[in-house]
Amino acid sequence: MNNRRSLILAAILFVGAIAAGYWGLVLSRQQPIAALPVTQVIEQGVVAAEDTTRKPVVVLAHDVPPHVALTAADVTLEKLTTVPAGSLTAIDQAVGRTPWRSLSAGTWLNEQSFDMGGPLARMIRPNERALAVAIDEVTGAGGQLTPGDYVDILLFLRQDTANPQQSAQVVLPAVRVLSVGDDLGLTNDGQLASQPKSAEEALKQEQRRASARTAVLAVPEPLLNQLMLATQAGTLRLAVRSAQEQRLSKYWAGEQEASNNLDNAKRSLYQFNQLAMSGPVKGPVTGNPGGAPRVRGIEIIRGNQTAK
User: Fold this and answer.
1) What is the model's pTM?
2) For residue 3, what are the CA distances in angstroms to 14, 41, 85, 146?
3) Taking the CA atoms of the chain, what radius of gyration do you get in angstroms?
4) Which of helix, strand or coil describes residue 33?
5) What CA–CA distance (Å, rounded) separates 32 from 38?
6) What is the pLDDT of residues 189-210, one digit of tens each?
7) N or C: where does the chain have the smaller number of CB atoms within 10 Å of the terminal CB?
8) Residue limits of the SAF domain (predicted)?
9) Are 49 and 84 in contact, with CB atoms under 8 Å apart?
């Protein structure tokens, strides 16, 4: 009797062990199957969230030469979280269009990429000319000159044989700085003419600007000759004007004040003969006005008598 009970108990335990093993095997197989869809759902949610914040931008896949129409192989789409203002967002917006200057790989394309003229030509107004002047740490406002600043151009004339009295005067007021070295400012539509692609490049550009030796100014076309004479006549210095003068952009381009400012700039330059590298103009000989010059003979003095 005892042997039979032992056999029955052993059989029950054996069946229970088989059932427990099978159940454990089933659970071990179902756990990764159940977890896998959850992981995929999370990853898909992250990707979907990133796609909503990123926008497509047309970027050049390689360097392109000027005057050659772009093809689909020249451009690609990149999704960026920060989209440059005015950039193209579809491939067909760029294909078939012709850039007028060479563009490097990685350039974000916009409407200005296909405009004629270089950066300086797109930074000046029709009545202005871009003219470069030499600067150093002193004449260029201590190396703090920045594109977009407005400066007064001062001229210092030393005393010499052609200039009996030294003088200092403002040659041109409220002139816009277009570039300092290779650091360019904004174009007429408010876009950066040259935008650094990384923080390291921006730091190097700032260091080069501090040690620049040339600055390009937007000079009104009627005053171009005046500034050219000033650069050859004496020493120029640039005095930076306050950023709180809000109407400086209209100083030479305003409809009402521009003409008055232009006339004042021409009149305010005193002793202009000094800029022309010539001596002062002598007045006409008095007597016989409007007639032919009188020829004087040799005067002979004998005591209190004179003869010719």
Assistant:
1) 0.56
2) 16, 58, 92, 104
3) 40
4) helix
5) 10
6) 666 656 655 666 667 767 777 7
7) N
8) 55-115
9) no
